[in-house]
Amino acid sequence: MDSWETKLTEACRDEKIVVANFSTKWCKACKTIAPTYSEIADKYSSILFLTVDVDELKELSTKWDIKATPTFFFFKGGRSVDKLEGANKEDLQKKTAALMYDLDTKSYY
Fold first, then answer.
1. Three-state SS at 74
2. Is residue 12 annotated as part of the catalytic site, yes or no?
């Protein structure tokens, strides 16, 4: 959990956007969306992409009220600004692209 807080603090300090994927190893939908998540991470290298295994970090998952996997949180300035539950590839791509647009225009502060 300390690593999570450290990553968010560093991202905020460095003005980075964060996309966090709360998932599990056994979840079929998580496995289905994983290649898309990796492709998006490769495409937007200025965004920090994190993956949180909800089984391994139960306290963090409880803190963020994870009810379904995968669940994606989108952070700007250290704050959660959007959320996506489920393995909807199109929505994940759209939400990430929208964040990238904000980053390019520096309109997130």
1. strand
2. no
Q: What is the pTM of this model?
A: 0.86
Give which of 4, 21, 8, 17 is closest to 71, Cα–Cα.
21
Q: What is the DSSP string of 18-72?
A: EEEEEE-SS-HHHHHHHHHHHHHHHH-TTSEEEEEETTT-HHHHHHTT--SSSEE
Please report, for residues 19, 47, 63, the alpha-carbon distance to residue 98 in angstroms, rounded to integers and kept in the order given. 12, 12, 26
- Which residue is catalytic, options 30, 47, 54, 87? 30
SS3 state of residue 92? helix
Strand 18-23, strand 71-76: pairing: antiparallel
Active-site residue, selected from the candidate residues 12, 27, 41, 100? 27
Report pLDDT digits (tens) over 74-109.
998 888 999 999 999 999 999 999 988 765 555 443
